[in-house]
């Protein structure tokens, strides 16, 4: 029997089993069995380099966004609209057969947008090009799930299930469970609060299923057995997702209104160029990129060329910023001057651990160098303060 058939069989058994206190251990075990099989399913076949084979596209720009959706929802039309790169669009399904990259220029940054073939129910089990599409999606920073506003609202759930089956977790935080395998000592099970979904016995059983007999487990939230399995598997990818309802030109205003009110959703029409700016703004917001402008001593910063940092990738401290410019820079830094929303006064003298925020301006003062920040105090000598930021800064609340 193949892996997919075994998963189906266990799913059928789960559906047959009544959910109650007496069966919860058995159901937990079945869930772990399915999770293990799904992980096996994701392992690339022997002799190939990876599940994304044939779809690799070189990373480019400050971030990567993947378009995921059923066939013919308008993914390629959207890529063409947002990037100017032509991707074939047509009224028949599976027009796109490979991964097509384009570049969005937004807020002085370059974002790589990936058009992908449509995926269908069963993609996680290898139907269509599902597995390649999903492998590429995992390499992105965020996902835009493109949906047809005129089609069933169930599509969003079906797609989410497919993505969950391959370890993607959309708009979720990693479970607050500390888990560490040990060589000896048995299993130590603890929690910092009262648990209502998982008890010690269930936890032991799940670990047993994974043949783990020595480990430390600490629940820091009232997590579920699914969360525990995610933590043990350790291969989950937590990603932001924006739900993009396209083709609102063909549905009634009430439907548009309802879809627009759903969390993390944007309604658009490629054909009528409706709301695309709102989509870009939402995408930008979810990516959480932080633009930092470098101000050379005695000069204005180059506002067209920010250093782009991200909390998800590498962090946003002054030290991360310095490392971005040059690996050996940190050891020469005496302090930095910061103008912008992260500063308590302008400019603020900061050390390496200061967290930077979007649109901050930073001047690095090296050891044995003098700053030109015009001394301390908000309005004192701003002749050398950066032009564009000083306006923003006057409006921005000062941090206390
Ligand atoms: N009414 C309407 N039709 C649209 C809109 N956007 C795209 N379409 C049409 O939808 C059809 C499918 O568009 P594609 O861009 O090829 O869709 P896709 O998701 O890339 O499709 P596959 O590559 O086959 O998965 C085309 O006929 C488009 O013209 C829209 O905003 N409104
Ligand atoms: K199509
Ligand atoms: Mg397409």
TrEMBL record:
Q: Domain TGS spans what residues?
A: 288-366
For whether the record's keyword set contains Nucleotide-binding, the answer is yes
| Domain of life, source organism | Eukaryota
Keywords per UniProt: GTP-binding, Nucleotide-binding
* Entry GO MF terms: GTP binding; GTPase activity
Which Pfam families does the protein's record reference?
Answer: MMR_HSR1, MMR_HSR1_Xtn, TGS
Query: In the UniProt record, does the keyword Ribosomal protein occur?
Result: no
Q: Which InterPro entries match?
A: Beta-grasp_dom_sf, DRG, G_OBG, GTP-bd, GTP-binding_2, GTP1-OBG_CS, P-loop_NTPase, Small_GTP-bd
User: Where are the compositionally biased (Basic and acidic residues) regions?
Assistant: 366-375
NCBIfam families under this entry?
small_GTP (TIGR00231)
Task: Report the protein name in the record.
Answer: Developmentally-regulated G-protein 2
């Amino acid at each position: 029997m193949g892996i997919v058939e075994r998963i189906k069989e266990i799913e059928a058994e789960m559906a047959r089993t009544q959910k109650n206190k007496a069966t919860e251990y058995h159901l937990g075990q079945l869930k772990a069995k399915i999770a293990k099989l799904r992980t096996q399913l994701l392992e690339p076949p022997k002799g190939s380099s990876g599940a994304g084979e044939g779809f690799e596209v070189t990373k480019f720009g400050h971030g990567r966004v993947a378009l995921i959706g059923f066939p013919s929802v308008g993914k390629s039309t959207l890529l063409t609209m947002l990037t100017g790169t032509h991707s074939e669009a047509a009224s028949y399904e599976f027009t796109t057969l490979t991964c097509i990259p384009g570049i969005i220029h937004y807020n002085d940054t370059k974002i790589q947008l990936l058009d992908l073939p449509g995926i269908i129910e069963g993609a996680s089990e290898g139907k269509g090009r599902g597995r390649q599409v999903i492998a590429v999606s995992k390499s992105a920073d965020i996902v835009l799930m493109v949906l047809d506003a005129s089609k069933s609202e169930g599509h969003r759930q079906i797609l989410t299930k497919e993505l969950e089956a391959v370890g993607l977790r959309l708009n979720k935080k990693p479970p607050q469970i500390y888990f560490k395998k040990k060589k000896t000592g048995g299993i130590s099970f603890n929690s910092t609060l009262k648990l209502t979904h998982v008890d010690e016995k269930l936890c032991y059983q799940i670990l047993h299923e994974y043949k783990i007999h020595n480990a430390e487990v600490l629940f820091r939230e009232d997590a579920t057995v699914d969360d525990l399995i995610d933590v043990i598997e350790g291969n989950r990818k937590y990603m932001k997702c924006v739900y993009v309802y396209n083709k609102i030109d063909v549905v009634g205003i009430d439907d548009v209104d309802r879809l627009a009110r759903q969390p993390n959703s944007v309604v658009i029409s490629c054909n009528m160029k409706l709301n695309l700016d709102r989509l870009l703004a939402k995408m930008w917001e979810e990516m959480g990129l932080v633009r930092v402008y470098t101000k050379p001593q005695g000069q204005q910063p180059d506002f067209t060329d920010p250093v782009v940092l991200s909390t998800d990738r590498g962090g946003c401290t002054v030290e991360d910023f310095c490392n971005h410019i040059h690996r050996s820079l940190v050891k020469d830094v005496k302090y930095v001057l910061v103008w912008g929303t992260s500063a308590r006064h302008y400019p603020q003298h900061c050390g390496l651990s200061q967290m930077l925020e979007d649109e901050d301006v930073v001047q690095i003062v090296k050891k044995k160098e003098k700053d030109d920040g015009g001394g301390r105090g908000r309005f004192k000598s701003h002749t050398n303060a950066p032009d564009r930021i000083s306006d923003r800064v006057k409006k921005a609340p000062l941090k206390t």
